[in-house]
Amino acid sequence: MKILRILAVSVAAFAIAGFSTAASADAAAGKAKFTAACAECHEVADFEGESAAALTDSLKKIVAGTQKHKQALKLTDAEVADLAAYMAAGK
After folding, report:
1. What class is the 2-89 domain?
2. Where do the domains of the chain lie?
3. What is the 3-state secondary structure (H, E, C) of 20-44?
4. For residue 47, how many other CB atoms are within 10 A of its CB?
């Protein structure tokens, strides 16, 4: 039982941490970054229907160089969150 309790607390903590990161993302800043770094090859509508979490994961992989992308991206965690929020909004 103790292991299940620890697991439940851990899952809840990760969920809260993920929500607070997404909630603190700035879609307006994401739009500016998208225009500067992504709009040459992408349209925001390309990402319609994707979740901010999935987009965050993809962007982090691109930044780390573990996911293929036309050009390398150098983004902070805050910029990744902002971009993902903007892209997920699809506007």
Report:
1. mainly alpha
2. 2-89
3. HHHHCCCHHHHHHHHHHHCCCCCCH
4. 22
Residue 11, token pair as written in the block = 């899952």
Task: Write out pLDDT tens, residues 35-60.
Answer: 999 999 999 999 989 999 999 999 99
Nearest to 58 by CA among 43, 48, 49, 68: 68
CA distance 9 to 88: 28
| 66: helix, strand or coil | coil
- What is the pTM (predicted TM-score) of this model? 0.71
Q: Rounded to whole angstroms, how far apart are CA atoms 24 and 43?
A: 24
User: Using CA atoms, how far apart are residues 58 and 54, in angstroms rounded to an integer?
Assistant: 6
* 8 Å CB contact between 48 and 90: yes
